[in-house]
Write a structure and sequence with these properties.
Protein name: Multidrug resistance-associated protein 1
Strand order of the largest sheet: 1-2
Distance between the termini: 69 Å
GO molecular function: ABC-type xenobiotic transporter activity; ATP binding; ATP hydrolysis activity; glutathione transmembrane transporter activity
CATH topology of one domain: ABC transporter transmembrane region fold
Number of strands: 8
Organism: Leptonychotes weddellii
Number of helices: 33
Shape: globular
GO cellular component, one term: basolateral plasma membrane
CATH architecture of one domain: Up-down Bundle
CATH class of one domain: Mainly Alpha
Keywords: ATP-binding, Membrane, Nucleotide-binding, Transmembrane, Transmembrane helix, Transport
Length: 937
C-alpha cells in the first residue's frame, strides 16, 4: 500500500493532528502525571522540544514571507502562531525544572538527602544535580559529612536482606532429599526363622544416598535475580550507543565528499559539522547513562556481597569456620567484592563487542569490498591465542588467590598474637614466614605480568594487523583499486572503533575468570556454613555499663570482656552453664545486679542448671548447693545453712573472712580521704574514653606513704597538678586511633617515591617506550595521509609497495614499543610491590605495643589485603591507562594545531576546565573515603 498526501483534506487532517490533538493530549498527560506525583517528565520534555523544532521551521517560513514586499499576511493566523510558539517555548523552559513534591507526599526527615531523586529529567540526563558537590569539593576537601545520604534503594538495609533471601531460596533448591527404601533382608531364610538382623546393616540399607550429584547453589543466579531487572536497563542504553557510534564514520564520509566537491553549497558543510557535534553529544549522554546504571548496580552488588559475607561470618559455627580461613573471608569482602563491582561495568561487552565487530566489518565491506575478509582471517587466528591466555590467566589467578589467602591468614594470626611475638622476640621468624609466602605470590604475579605483556601486544597489534592486511589485499588484488582519502580515513575510523571491542573483550573475559575464581569462596563455604542457633535482640537485663560506641573492641577491660561473654552465653539459651568466677573483675554493684537478674534464683537462668566457681561469699546464701574445695579435693558439700550448722572448715573460713573485713573497714574509715584519689579516673572527652594515668601514679605513691601516715593533703595537690598536666595531651590517652583519609591532592613526593620503588631506569624507560609507541602511531597516520595524496597515473597509484612496506614497518615498531612498555610497567610494578610490602611489614613488626593497642587490627589487615592488592594489580594498569591517554591527548592536540593553528585559542581554556573538573573537584577524596570505612570490618 502506498501512502500519498496529495489530497488537501489529508494534509489538513495532519495539520489538525499536530496543532490541536497533540497539545490536548499533552495537557491530559500533564494532569495525569501531576496526580501521580511525577515531579519531572522526560516524555513531556521531549515532546515540547520536538514541537519547538517543528515550530522553528514554520517561524522561519513566516519571517521569510514577511520580508517579501508583495507578500500577503494573515494577521490572525500569524498572531495565533506566535502565541502558540511562545507557549511551546515556555512549556519547554518549565519542563527543564522539577516541580514541587505533592502536598500530601511522604515527609523526608533526612537532613542531607541526595538531590538525584528530586532533580529534573534534564538535570538527571546531564548530571547537573551533582554540580553543587563538585563546587564544594573545589572550595575545600570533601569529608564524609559533606556527602549526601544514600538513596533508600541503595542502602545496605534494602539490598542485603533481598540477596540473603534469594540465596536461601537457591540453597533450598539445590538440596536433594536422600532416597529412602524399605528394608528387606538379604537372607530370606534368616528372616523366616526370626533371626535378628544387624542394626548397622539395617541402617545401611534403610538410608541410601541419591545417586544424582547435588547441584551447587549459584551465586550468579542469585545476583541476577536480585539486581537483574534494574541492570537490564543498561542493555538498552548500550545498544543505542553502539548504533550511534557508527554514525560518526558515515558523517565523516559525507564531510570528505563535501570537501572534495567544489560545487557543494556551504550550508552542507555547516550542517555536517553540526550533525557530527550533535551525534557526539548524544552518544556521550547515552553512554554515561549506561555507566551510571552499571556503577549503581555494581555498588549494590558489592554492598550486598559484603553485607551477606559479614553477616555469615558473625554467626558461623566453629566447625564450619575451619573450612574458610580468615584470609579468605577478608579477601572476599575487600578484593573479590570490588571485582564484582568492576565486572558489572563491562560485562555487557560480552554481547556488545561482537555486535560492534559485526557492524564495523559490514561497513568495511561496503567501503573496501571482499578485501575485508583478510582482516577477518587475522581476527580468527587471534581467537586460539586469546583462549590459551584466558586459561593461563585463570590458573595464575587461582594460584595467586591461594597464596594471598595464606598470607592474610598468617598476618591475621600475627596481629592477634602480637603480644606473644613481642614477649619471645619472634618477629624475625614470623617475618621470614610471611616473606616466603609473599615470594611465592610474587612469582605468580610475575608470570601473570609476562602473560599480560603478551596479551597487550596482541590486543594492541590486532586492529593494526587487521587494517594492514585489509589495505594490502585491497591495493594488490587489483591495480585499479585506489586508496583515496575517503576510503582510507573512513576505514581508519572504523578500524579505531574496532580497536576497543577487540581490546576490551579479552580483558572482560579475564575479569570474568577472576570473578569465577572468587565465586568459589562464597559458593563453597562462606555462604553455606552452619549457623549458630540462638536468639537475637537487646539483652536488657545486663547492666548498661558497656557502651558500644565507646568500646570498639580493641581494649576492652576484664570486666567488659566478662560481661560480653556472659551476654553471649545467655543468648545461646543452653541447658547447662559453667561460670568460672564471672563476677571477679566487675564492681560490687554491677556484680550484684548481674547475679540478681541473670545468675541468681530470680534471674533469667533460674530454670537452667548453673555451676558457679567463685571466691566471693556474698552470693553463697542464695545458691542451692555449695561444694567446698580444699587442696584440690571436695571437703564439704551442702546448702549454706547446713554447712554453717556443721561448724567445719567452711564455717571457720566465714568467721576468719568476717573478722578480716571488719579490720579493713576500720582502717578505711581512718583513711577515707586517701582512697578516692587512688581510683582510676575515667571520663568522656570527644567521644573517646580517656584514662587518668595521673591517678594511677598517685595511687602508687599513696600506697607507699600510707604505711607511715604521710600527709594526705600533699597528695591531693599532686593529683590536681597531674590531672592538669595530663589534660594537655588528650590524644595520648585515646584508646583507639581512628583511621582517617588524607585530604587534598597527592603530593609529588609520593609519585617520586613510587618511581624510586620501581627504579628510575625502568620508570624513564617506560616513559620513553610510551613516547615511541605514540610517535609510531602518529607517523603511521601521517604516512597514510601521504599515501592517499599520491597522484593517480593511468588509473593507478605509484609507489604502492613502498607505502605499504613503510606503513607495516611503523605498525611493527608500534607493537614492539607496546610490548616493551607493558613489560617494563609490569616488572616495575612487581618490584615496587615487593619493596612497599617489605617496608610495611617491617614497620608494623617493629612498632611498640602501644601502637597495636591504639590501632584496630582491621586497619592493619586492610593494608595487607585490599590496599596491597591495589599496589599489586591496579596501579600498573592505571599507569598504562594514564600514560596512554596522556600521549593520545598530546598527539591529538599537536595534529590539530598543525592543521588548524587557530585552535590554540580554544585548547588552553578547555584544558583548564578539564583540570578543575577532574582534578580539583574532590573526586580523589571520594575515592579515599570507602577505604577508611572498610577497615573497621
Amino acid at each position: 500500500m502506498e501512502l500519498r498526501l496529495n489530497d488537501e483534506h489529508d494534509v489538513k487532517k495532519l495539520k489538525r493532528l499536530g496543532a490541536e490533538d497533540c497539545p490536548l493530549l499533552a495537557t491530559f498527560l500533564i494532569q495525569l502525571e501531576r496526580r501521580k506525583g511525577v515531579q519531572s517528565s522526560g516524555i513531556m520534555l521531549t515532546f515540547w522540544l520536538v514541537a519547538l523544532l517543528c515550530a522553528l521551521a514554520i517561524l522561519r517560513s513566516k519571517i521569510m514571507t514577511a520580508l517579501k514586499e508583495d507578500a500577503e499576511i494573515d494577521v490572525f493566523r500569524d498572531v495565533t502562531f506566535y502565541i502558540y510558539f511562545s507557549l511551546v517555548l515556555m512549556q519547554l523552559v518549565l519542563s527543564c525544572f522539577s516541580d514541587r513534591p505533592p502536598l500530601f507526599s511522604e515527609t523526608i526527615h533526612d537532613p542531607n538527602p541526595c538531590p538525584e531523586s528530586s532533580a529534573s529529567f534534564l538535570s538527571r540526563v546531564t548530571f547537573w544535580w551533582i554540580t553543587g558537590l563538585m563546587v564544594r569539593g573545589y572550595r575545600q576537601p570533601l569529608e564524609s559529612t559533606d556527602l549526601w545520604s544514600l538513596n533508600k534503594e541503595d542502602t545496605s538495609e534494602q539490598v542485603v536482606p533481598v540477596l540473603v533471601k534469594n540465596w536461601k531460596k537457591e540453597c533450598a533448591k539445590s538440596k536433594r532429599q536422600q532416597a529412602k527404601m524399605a528394608y528387606s533382608s538379604k537372607d530370606p531364610a534368616k528372616q523366616k526363622g526370626g533371626s535378628q538382623v544387624d542394626v548397622n546393616e539395617e541402617a545401611e540399607v534403610l538410608i541410601v544416598k541419591s545417586p544424582q550429584k547435588e547441584r551447587e547453589p549459584s551465586l550468579f543466579k542469585v545476583l541476577y535475580k536480585t539486581f537483574g531487572p534494574y541492570f537490564l536497563m543498561s542493555f538498552l542504553f548500550k545498544a543505542l550507543h553502539d548504533l550511534m557510534m557508527f554514525a560518526g564514520p558515515e558523517i565523516l564520509k559525507l564531510l570528505i565528499n563535501f570537501v572534495n566537491d567544489q560545487k557543494a553549497p556551504d550550508w552542507q558543510g555547516y550542517f555536517y559539522t553540526a550533525l557530527l557535534f550533535v551525534s557526539a553529544c548524544l552518544q556521550t549522554l547515552v553512554l554515561h547513562q549506561y555507566f551510571h546504571i552499571c556503577f549503581v548496580s555494581g555498588m549494590r552488588i558489592k554492598t550486598a556481597v559484603i553485607g551477606a559475607v559479614y553477616r555469615k561470618a558473625l554467626v558461623i559455627t566453629n566447625s564450619a569456620r575451619k573450612s574458610s580461613t580468615v584470609g579468605e573471608i577478608v579477601n572476599l569482602m575487600s578484593v573479590d567484592a570490588q571485582r564484582f563491582m568492576d565486572l558489572a561495568t563491562y560485562i555487557n561487552m560480552i554481547w556488545s563487542a561482537p555486535l560492534q565487530v559485526i557492524l564495523a566489518l559490514y561497513l568495511l565491506w561496503l567501503n573496501l569490498g571482499p578485501s575485508v575478509l583478510a582482516g577477518v582471517a587475522v581476527m580468527i587466528l587471534m581467537v586460539p591465542l586469546n583462549a590459551v591466555m584466558a586459561m593461563k590467566t585463570k590458573t595464575y589467578q587461582v594460584a595467586h588467590m591461594k597464596s594471598k589467602d595464606n598470607r592474610i591468614k598468617l598476618m591475621n594470626e600475627i596481629l592477634n598474637g602480637i603480644k606473644v611475638l613481642k614477649l619471645y622476640a619472634w618477629e624475625l621468624a614470623f617475618k621470614d614466614k610471611v616473606l616466603a609466602i609473599r615470594q611465592e605470590e610474587l612469582k605468580v604475579l610475575k608470570k601473570s605480568a609476562y602473560l599480560a605483556a603478551v596479551g597487550t601486544f596482541t590486543w594492541v597489534c590486532t586492529p593494526f594487523l587487521v587494517a594492514l592486511s585489509t589495505f594490502a589485499v585491497y591495493v594488490t588484488i587489483d591495480k585499479n583499486n585506489i586508496l583515496d582519502a575517503q576510503k582510507a580515513f573512513v576505514s581508519l575510523a572504523l578500524f579505531n572503533i574496532l580497536r576497543f571491542p577487540l581490546n576490551i573483550l579479552p580483558m572482560v573475559i579475564s575479569s570474568i575468570v577472576q570473578v569465577q575464581a572468587g565465586l568459589e569462596g562464597p559458593e563453597g563455604g562462606v555462604f553455606c556454613g552452619k549457623e549458630v542457633k540462638g536468639h537475637t535482640g537487646p539483652l536488657h537485663t545486663a547492666p548498661s555499663a558497656l557502651p558500644v560506641p565507646l568500646c570498639p573492641g580493641v581494649n576492652l577491660s576484664g570486666g567488659q570482656k566478662q560481661r560480653v561473654s556472659l551476654a553471649r552465653a545467655v543468648y545461646c539459651d543452653s541447658d547447662i552453664y559453667l561460670f568460672d568466677d564471672p563476677l571477679s573483675a566487675v564492681d560490687a554493684h554491677v556484680g550484684k545486679h548481674i547475679f540478681e537478674n541473670v545468675i541468681g534464683p530470680k534471674g533469667m537462668l533460674r530454670s537452667k542448671t548453673r555451676l558457679l566457681v567463685t571466691h566471693s561469699i556474698s552470693y553463697l546464701p542464695q545458691v542451692d548447693v555449695i561444694i567446698v574445695m580444699t587442696g584440690g579435693k571436695i571437703s564439704e558439700m551442702g546448702s549454706y545453712q547446713e554447712l554453717l550448722a556443721r561448724d567445719g572448715a567452711f564455717a571457720e573460713f566465714l568467721r576468719t573472712y568476717a573478722s578480716t573485713e571488719q579490720e579493713r573497714a576500720e582502717q578505711d574509715d581512718g583513711l577515707i580521704s586517701v582512697s578516692s584519689p587512688g581510683k582510676e579516673v575515667k571520663q568522656m572527652e570527644n567521644g573517646m574514653l580517656v584514662t587518668d594515668v595521673a591517678g594511677k601514679q598517685l595511687q602508687r605513691q599513696l600506697s607507699n606513704s600510707s604505711s607511715y601516715g604521710g600527709d594526705v593533703s600533699r597528695h591531693r595537690t599532686s593529683t590536681a597538678e597531674l590531672q592538669k598536666a595530663g589534660a594537655k595531651n588528650e590524644d595520648a590517652w585515646k584508646l583507639v586511633e581512628a583511621d582517617k583519609a588524607q585530604t587534598g591532592q597527592v603530593k609529588l613526593s609520593v609519585y617520586w617515591d613510587y618511581m624510586k620503588a620501581i627504579g628510575l631506569f625502568i620508570s624513564f624507560l617506560s616513559i620513553f617506550l610510551f613516547l615511541c609507541n605514540h610517535i609510531a602511531a602518529l607517523a603511521s597516520n601521517y604516512w597514510l595521509s601521504l599515501w592517499t595524496d599520491d597522484p593517480i597515473v593511468n588509473g593507478t597509484q605509484e609507489h604502492t609497495k613502498v607505502r605499504l612496506s613503510v606503513y607495516g614497518a611503523l605498525g611493527i615498531s608500534q607493537g614492539i614499543s607496546v610490548f616493551g612498555y607493558s613489560m617494563a610497567v609490569s616488572i616495575g610494578g612487581i618490584l615496587a610491590s615487593r619493596r612497599l610490602h617489605l617496608d610495611l611489614l617491617q614497620n608494623v613488626l617493629r612498632s611498640p605495643m602501644s601502637f597495636f593497642e591504639r590501632t584496630p587490627s582491621g586497619n592493619l589487615v586492610n593494608r595487607f589485603s585490599k590496599e596491597l592488592d591495589t599496589v599489586d594489580s591496579m596501579i600498573p594498569q592505571v599507569i598504562k591507562m594514564f600514560m596512554g591517554s596522556l600521549f593520545n591527548v598530546m598527539g591529538a592536540c599537536i595534529i590539530i594545531l598543525l592543521a588548524t593553528p587557530i585552535a590554540a585559542i580554544i585548547i588552553p581554556p578547555l584544558g583548564l576546565i578539564y583540570f578543575f573538573v577532574q582534578v580539583r573537584s574532590g573526586v580523589s577524596g571520594c575515592r579515599r573515603g570507602p577505604a577508611v570505612y572498610t577497615t573497621s570490618m
